[in-house]
Amino acid sequence: MFREAILEALKKRGIKQIELARHLDINRSSLNAFLKGSGKISLANVEKSFLFLGIEIVLKDK
Question: Global pTM?
Fold first, then answer.
């Protein structure tokens, strides 16, 4: 879910993975592995990605 939202926002906004990786201060290969589903990044970096890409975080009550 997070990966798909980030990938969609990157494409929609025309932002390259390297730009996001620089913003997060992580290497591009780590970000790429996360986006492909074979790696992990911290929850803090997921949050930073959402903020950088303007992805709204909506919490739902059950």
Answer: 0.87
